[in-house]
């Protein structure tokens, strides 16, 4: 059976980008067709300036939202990365497989490093090695497919390269994974700056739709989205990124095609209104279910404990095999 692994970082409140790019597919298709593991990748949240209490809160909130969105613990495995030691154990072996040069070429390292430096913070070493830990997340489980947004393509490529390199050098140990992307909205853009990706750790709250924003706030953010000063509604990602972003969001919500939706609209206002309505309807059940589940932290914790137990059992034999293959004396 196909094995799927993917994760969300507790670096901020989950966004519409996280939902359309990743979580929604996990719920609607991945958990039904594969042996799927979904993870709150909390160790990755430590790669940038963080507040310990906030990371803890956001980790539980992310898990609660994943359940609220429809991940079913009877169909998939939901757990927290730091509860399974195998991720960090394998990451070290992969650090001994990756090169300094290939990590420094990662686009997200350059972008996030520049952002940290611009705000006067030093760049943590773990920000550089983060894609190696992500490769460990994926490879530990013998993952075939990694459903992610477009921004993660380069990191999944690295995981592939490391798997191939390790296998060639030390003998076949890892499955070589591939990324899968949603057909539309693989890269939802910031509503206030449609040339940058909507990201949960970004400052511009006004350009980001958070999954837990109330309906009025979602409407306000979408109605105030930055567009160009033209009048015709066209789908052109290069020349009209703001409009293209709204068309993609609308298409993703109602199951349409952005290029075909464009001629339906004669004004920007009507497009924004329909997009806002569609997003509000899409998120309504999720918010309602989140409110119920948030009142039952015991249930969420029990799901995570059970998930971690199963994940350890799945990952350990492959990670042990990697330790033996690379030349370490078996000790347990
Ligand atoms: P951060 O700003 O901390 O990197 P993020 O919003 O990028 O947060 P991640 O936890 O890095 O979220 O990514 C979780 C998943 O959501 C990944 O599969 C990623 O590709 C996807 N994703 C993130 N942002 C978007 C977006 N704007 N559009 C589509 N998919 C996205
Ligand atoms: Mg990200």
From TrEMBL:
Under the heading InterPro entries, the entry gives: aa-tRNA-synth_I_CS, aa-tRNA-synth_Ic, Rossmann-like_a/b/a_fold, Trp-tRNA-ligase, Trp-tRNA-ligase_bac-type, Trp-tRNA_synthetase
Coiled-coil positions are: none
Q: Where is the protein found, in the record's own terms? A: Cytoplasm
PANTHER family, per database record: TRYPTOPHAN--TRNA LIGASE, MITOCHONDRIAL
UniProt-listed PROSITE patterns: AA_TRNA_LIGASE_I
Per UniProt, the enzyme's principal EC class comes to ligase
| Subunit note | Homodimer.
Q: At which positions is motif 'HIGH' region?
A: 10-18
Q: Which residues bind ATP?
A: 9-11, 17-18, 149-151, 188, 197-201
Summary of the function given for this chain in its UniProt record = Catalyzes the attachment of tryptophan to tRNA(Trp).
Molecular-function annotations in GO:
tryptophan-tRNA ligase activity
Q: Which Gene3D superfamilies match?
A: HUPs, Tyrosyl-Transfer RNA Synthetase
Positions annotated to bind L-tryptophan: 137
Q: Which gene encodes it?
A: trpS
Its recorded name reads Tryptophan--tRNA ligase
The principal location of this protein is cytoplasm
Enzyme Commission number, as recorded: 6.1.1.2
Reaction equations catalysed? tRNA(Trp) + L-tryptophan + ATP = L-tryptophyl-tRNA(Trp) + AMP + diphosphate + H(+)
Record family assignment: Belongs to the class-I aminoacyl-tRNA synthetase family.
Chain location of the short sequence motif 'KMSKS' region per the record: 197-201
- What's in the keyword line of the UniProt record? Aminoacyl-tRNA synthetase, ATP-binding, Cytoplasm, Ligase, Nucleotide-binding, Protein biosynthesis
UniProt xrefs under Pfam families: tRNA-synt_1b
